Amino acid sequence: MWGSIFSCAACCLAFLPKIHKLSEEEKEEENDTQIKMADSIPLLTPYKLGNFNLSHRIILAPLTRQRSYGNVPQPHAILYYSQRTSKGGLLISEATGVSNTAQGYPETPGIWTKEQVEAWKPIVDAVHAKGGIFFCQIWHVGRVSNSDFQPNGQAPISSTDKPLKPQIRANGIDEAEFTPPRRLRTDEIPGIINDFRLAARNAMEAGFDGVEIHGANGYIIDQFLKDTVNDRTDEYGGSLENRCRFALELVEAVVDEIGADKVGIRLSPFADFMESGDSNPKALGLHMAQALNKYGILYLHVIEPRMKTPGEICECYDTLVPMRKAFNGSFISAGGFNRDLGNKAVAENDTDLVAYGRLFLANPDLPKRFELNAPLNKYNRATFYIPDPVLGYTDYPFLESA
Ligand SMILES: Cc1cc2nc3c(=O)[nH]c(=O)nc-3n(C[C@H](O)[C@H](O)[C@H](O)COP(=O)(O)O)c2cc1C
């Protein structure tokens, strides 16, 4: 998740369409037009993602919503995810903790206990019932935590013992305090990797179609990858190869557990979220894209270089194209896309699929709206992370009801 301030980045319109009842003839005509339009809309062309037949390329990006009380997914998530499901559409779940040391924000879901696995099942079933494909994003925050979230009030764990500075929360008022982390000993690292392996197994048990390993946005994997954070002197620190070792061993473990065809990973080499920038993001991104080929994973999901800080689109000349070319599997791009940018990226073969965060959060029927080129609901940042089971969660209107 993003624990900081968001500014309005993508262009959203507050206007909503007028509804007019169509005759049967008009409906047929409209259907024909829509089919023709879909043919010419790159985002709405089908795509074969490994064993999954996607009917379009508009992906629900992972979005932390902080409505999983006590780290247990709640029944209100059934409606939330099923609202955002389309037949043949891919959804990626909100970041989901792999263990009791993985949490750093209130009311975020986990997948390390039987109770959590059982609680995910009806949510996954609802997505499947509407023909969706659902991946679980598995997560460990590392040092982006404080002792209140940790078992026995212990210090959060990380690649480093360098603390994070306090940060303004999403509401723009409160400050998040972070407890200085404890640097993991080399012999503890296999245990953390094993937590990801078990979480992946649990995700499959819950019925998910696969997992996305959260290697982005300054959380534990990124804390190993990035040279401004990772100051280790063992085989997990120093050279580029060493800094990537944790991520790659973790990928290997998850692949061994559930199969490469069910594994994706998310990276943000260019970003500097949670004080986790890198001095050479191009080399880091390219090295990871090449190294991941060894494991034959399903997809690589990368955040665009223009998203340096949360919610702020920067002018940027870096591109993900070298990573996209170097990686043999499917590629998902995310960050600051609107309809036109998404269509362009697919049309120019810069990516296979586009993940939408804030636009999908506020528009449960986003693929339909893109198909019709309909106006979009505006997202409300103030309700991104509140615990309300309805407000800002399942009450964004559909086109028909607007
Ligand atoms: C409310 C909110 C929660 C988010 N939670 C996550 C998350 O759990 N995991 C993750 O990888 N990214 C998370 N992100 C980042 C989004 O997945 C996405 O990369 C970001 O919003 C940029 O895409 P957009 O411009 O389409 O919104 C979150 C973003 C928002 C706005």
Keywords:
alpha/beta; 11 helices; 9-stranded parallel β-sheet; binds flavin mononucleotide
Topology record:
Layout: H1 24-39, E1 47-49, E2 52-54, E3 58-60, H2 76-83, E4 90-92, E5 96-97, H3 114-129, E6 133-139, E7 157-158, E8 167-168, E9 175-176, E10 182-183, H4 189-206, E11 210-215, H5 220-225, H6 240-258, E12 263-267, H7 281-292, E13 299-303, H8 321-326, E14 330-334, H9 339-347, E15 353-356, H10 358-362, H11 366-372
Parallel strand pairs: 3-15, 4-6, 5-6, 6-11, 7-10, 11-12, 12-13, 13-14, 14-15
Antiparallel strand pairs: 1-2, 8-9
Helix pairs in contact: 2-3, 3-4, 4-6, 6-7
The structure holds flavin mononucleotide (FMN).
Describe the structure.
The protein is of the alpha/beta class and 402 residues long. It is built from eleven helices and 15 strands. It has helices spanning 24-39, 76-83, 114-129, 189-206, 220-225, 240-258, 281-292, 321-326, 339-347, 358-362, 366-372, and strands spanning 47-49, 52-54, 58-60, 90-92, 96-97, 133-139, 157-158, 167-168, 175-176, 182-183, 210-215, 263-267, 299-303, 330-334, 353-356. Strands 3, 4, 5, 6, 11, 12, 13, 14 and 15 form a nine-stranded parallel sheet that branches. Strand 8 (167-168) and strand 9 (175-176) form a beta hairpin. The longest helix has 19 residues, at 240-258. The protein is globular and about 70 Å long. The two termini are 29 Å apart. The structure holds flavin mononucleotide. The site of flavin mononucleotide has 26 residues, from helix 10.
